[in-house]
Each structure stands twice: as structure tokens, then as C-alpha cells.
């Protein structure tokens, strides 16, 4: 079967679909990924068909390079304030994006949408489609929407937050979709949010573990927590100098992913150096500025977490779903510095699971706070034991195979599977 996956955003928004695409290709499906041109190498290196789709500025991999957005994030992780700070796309940019998605999936038997492309499914309702989300988006009484602060006000408050942010996102995305459907003579999307339909009348795949987010009893049957989708690159080998550096002593790892531009990068690295030294450890930095660093610090531009993390004493990261999952699998403590979007949600979960100290929100990050958190993560025996135990608990999960099973079952139910 021909399957097209549509996604925009940072590497963390593309890599899970690459991992799923490899699994589906291994089962004989023709898989293509429609995304921004900068991810061609990531997609093609995995042996998948790449289709270029140009997203508007607010959906590109460099979205954190927008000064207005960064200024909003540095005030705190307000979802609404951050979204409103994004440079609005032009009508032509919006139409070009939807035309690109339509072209990328023109002959597909199934389209798989992601958080920034869910709306595309509603513009082409006659084609079978399902969705993935690395952010819990299905309404529940168990916890609030990821954009909201937890409050001790019970299930009614939690469901209300889901309804509010669901409506906010539907309204934000509908106006773009309608620019396109009006051009092609389609029916405009309007009324109340339909995002809640995903997971009820079509599968919604969550690529994280139910060890991390236990499945709420009030979720619909088609909302599936599959386990993490790790993109293990068997062909990746560490540079010799990195392997030698790590072999000397388990380091602290600093990796902030797409949120590096929001930081004062040099200052954050300096604080991390102090924190690693305070814990008696060297430091590995992934990303950040290319600058001269002391001998007990190694900077890499790109690594395979499956190789590096098990060799580390602890990791400092931004609270991304995939990064947190990789640290859990490696069984190492985590210090989180959440910035925005889903970062606070995953940071709270890591602390709640006992695998990391209390989160250090970016807008309140200090040198002393980071030094103390890293020292705790390295020295706390219970935290290390809890991290190792959760890693063992996840070892038997088959996230990618489970997700592929759901996709194939849905394909069969639509009558399009061979």
C-alpha cells in the first residue's frame, strides 16, 4: 500500500515518522514523507521517499529563530502568547503548503497526519487518514491539556482545559485551511472543533510508553499508546574522538534540541560546565554555538542517543518527548529545562516518575539551580535506581510494531489494503 506521512516543525516532529516509515517499509508498504526541504537527508538516509512541502515560517524547523517568538518564550511558557507571537503566513504561503500536502499524497491509499498537519485530513475527507501525536491531545479527566498548568481542581477542570485549547487550535488552523479550500472550491471548515474526532472514528497513535502516561480510562478505543518509536540508526558510528572522550568517564550530557536559539547559548553552556564539574563529571554538549571549550568538554553537532545516552551519568535536556524517552530507555537521570509547547508536560512527567529533579523552567533558569539539579541527578542513588528500573520496564515494549499493526488494521478496515 502507498502511505504518505505529513509533518512539519523541528527534527523531533519528523524523526518519529521516519522511524514508523522504516517499519512500514519493512512490511512491504511504499512509504513517503512530505515535509520541509531541510529534512530530505533524514528521510532519504532511512530509505524512504521524500516529498518536499514548504511550510510557512511558523511551522518550519527554524521556528525558534523568530525574535518575536523567542521574546515571548523567555517571558514564560504561555502557549497562547507564544502562538500569537508567530509571524503570520501570507495567503500564498498557506495555499502553497496545502497544495504541497495534496501533491505529496495524491496517489496515497492512506495519509498519516501529525500535530501541525492534522487539519489537512479534514480538507480531504474522502481519503482514508489517521494521525499521530507525541503530545497527549485526547480530552480526559485524568490530567489537563498539555498547554495548561495542573491545578488541584479535579476532572472537571482538566476536561475544560482540553476543550479550551482544542477550540483555540481548531480556530487557529481553520482559517489557514479555509484559505486553501476557497481557492479550490471546497467547503469551508467551520463550527466547533473536530479534532476530538481523531481517536474516535480513526486511529490516533501516541508514540510514548504507558509507563510514562498511563492510558486514561475515558479515552476512546482508537486512541493508542503504542510505546516509543526509536529511530535506531544501525549504520551510525561515533567519531573516534567522541568515543575516546566518553570512555574516560561517564559524562553529563547537555542537549537542548530545537530550543537552543531561545537560550543565551554560551551562558547555558558555561553554567552546564560548572554543573558537570560540581558533580565531578566531564560534559558532552550536543548543538549550541561553535566555540572554544575546555578539555573536559566535548561538543558534537549530531549524535545517536541510542549509543551515547547509556554511556552518560545524566542528561540535561529541554523536555522533548523523544529525548525524554531516549533517556528513559538508557536508564539515566534527567534534568529538564522546559521552554514551551509540550516541554513543561514532559518535564513534569519525568519529575513525577522520580527520574529527575524538579524542572528548571527556562525563564527561571539560574547557574545555582542547574548546578544543584545536576549534582542531585548524579548523586541520588534512588533516582538512578528508578531510572534504571523504568528503562527495564520499557525494554519489552514494541512501539513501532504495535503502531504498524494499528495502521495495517485500519487500512484493512477501509477496504484499500491488498
Short overview:
The protein is of the alpha/beta class.
Highlighted features:
five-stranded parallel beta sheet
Strand fraction equals: 5-15%
Task: Output mean pLDDT.
Answer: 95
Structure classification: alpha/beta
Number of helices: 15
Helix-strand string: EHEHEHHHEHEHEEHEHEEHEHEHHHH
- Please state how the strands of the largest beta sheet are arranged side by side: 3-2-1-4-5-6-7
As a percent range, the share of helical residues equals 40-55%
Radius of gyration: 21 Å
Uncertain residue ranges: none
Cα distance spanning the termini: 7 Å
Shape: globular
Number of strands: 12
* Major sheet details: 7 strands, parallel
Quaternary = single chain
Outline the structure in words.
With about 425 residues, the protein is an alpha/beta fold. The longest helix has about 30 residues, at about 155-185. A 7-stranded parallel β-sheet has the order 3-2-1-4-5-6-7, with helices on both faces. The chain has a 5-stranded parallel β-sheet with strand order 10-9-8-11-12, with helices on both faces. Helix 9 packs across helix 13. The chain has helices at about 10-25, 40-45, 65-75, 80-85, 90-105, 120-125, 155-185, 240-250, 265-280, 305-310, 320-330, 345-350, 365-380, 380-395, 400-415, and strands at about 1-5, 30-35, 50, 110-115, 130, 205, 225, 250-255, 285, 295-300, 315, 335. The chain is globular, with a radius of gyration of 21 Å. The mean pLDDT is about 95. The chain starts with a strand and ends with a helix. It is built from 15 helices and 12 strands. Helix 6 links the parallel strand 4 (about 110-115) and strand 5. Helix content is about 45%, strand content about 10%.
Amino acid at each position: 500500500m502507498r502511505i504518505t506521512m505529513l509533518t512539519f516543525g523541528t527534527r523531533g516532529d519528523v524523526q518519529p515518522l521516519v522511524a514508523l516509515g522504516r517499519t512500514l517499509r519493512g512490511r512491504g508498504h511504499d512509504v513517503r514523507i512530505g515535509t520541509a526541504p531541510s529534512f530530505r537527508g533524514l528521510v532519504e538516509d532511512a530509505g524512504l521517499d521524500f516529498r518536499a512541502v514548504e511550510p510557512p515560517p511558523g511551522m518550519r524547523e527554524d521556528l525558534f529563530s523568530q525574535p518575536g517568538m523567542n521574546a515571548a518564550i523567555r517571558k514564560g511558557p504561555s502557549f497562547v502568547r507564544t502562538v500569537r507571537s508567530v509571524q503570520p503566513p501570507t495567503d500564498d504561503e498557506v495555499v502553497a503548503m496545502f497544495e504541497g500536502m495534496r501533491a505529496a499524497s495524491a496517489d496515497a491509499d492512506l495519509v498519516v497526519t501529525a500535530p501541525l498537519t492534522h487539519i489537512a485530513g479534514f480538507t480531504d475527507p474522502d481519503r482514508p487518514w489517521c494521525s499521530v501525536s507525541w503530545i497527549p491531545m485526547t480530552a480526559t479527566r485524568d490530567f489537563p491539556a498539555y498547554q495548561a498548568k495542573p491545578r488541584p481542581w479535579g476532572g472537571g477542570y482538566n476536561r475544560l482545559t482540553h476543550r479550551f485549547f482544542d477550540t483555540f487550535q481548531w480556530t487557529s488552523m481553520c482559517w489557514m485551511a479555509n484559505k486553501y479550500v476557497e481557492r479550490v472550491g471546497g467547503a469551508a471548515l467551520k463550527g466547533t472543533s473536530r479534532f476530538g474526532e481523531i481517536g474516535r472514528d480513526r486511529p490516533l497513535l501516541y508514540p510514548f510508553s504507558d509507563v510514562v502516561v498511563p492510558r486514561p480510562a475515558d479515552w476512546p478505543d482508537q486512541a493508542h499508546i503504542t510505546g516509543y518509536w526509536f529511530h535506531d540508526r544501525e549504520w551510525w558510528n561515533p567519531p573516534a574522538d567522541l568515543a575516546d572522550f566518553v570512555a574516560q568517564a561517564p559524562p553529563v550530557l547537555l542537549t537542548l534540541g530545537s530550543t537552543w536559539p531561545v537560550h543565551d547559548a554560551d551562558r547555558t553552556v558555561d553554567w552546564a560546565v560548572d554543573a558537570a564539574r560540581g558533580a565531578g563529571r566531564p560534559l558532552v554538549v550536543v548543538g549550541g554555538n561553535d566555540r572554544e571549550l575546555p578539555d573536559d568538554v566535548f561538543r558534537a553537532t549530531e549524535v545517536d542517543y541510542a549509543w551515547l545516552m547509556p554511556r552518560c551519568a545524566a542528561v540535561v535536556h529541554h523536555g522533548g518527548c523523544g529525548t525524554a524517552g531516549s533517556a528513559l530507555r538508557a536508564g539515566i537521570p534527567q534534568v529538564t529545562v522546559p521552554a514551551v509547547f509540550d516541554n513543561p508536560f514532559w518535564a513534569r512527567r519525568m519529575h513525577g516518575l522520580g527520574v529527575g529533579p524538579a524542572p528548571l523552567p527556562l525563564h527561571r533558569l539560574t547557574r545555582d539551580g542547574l548546578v544543584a539539579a545536576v549534582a542531585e541527578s548524579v548523586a541520588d542513588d534512588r533516582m538512578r535506581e528508578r531510572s534504571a528500573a523504568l528503562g527495564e520496564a520499557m525494554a519489552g515494549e514494541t512501539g513501532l510494531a504495535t503502531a504498524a499493526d494499528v495502521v495495517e488494521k485500519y487500512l484493512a478496515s477501509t477496504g484499500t489494503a491488498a
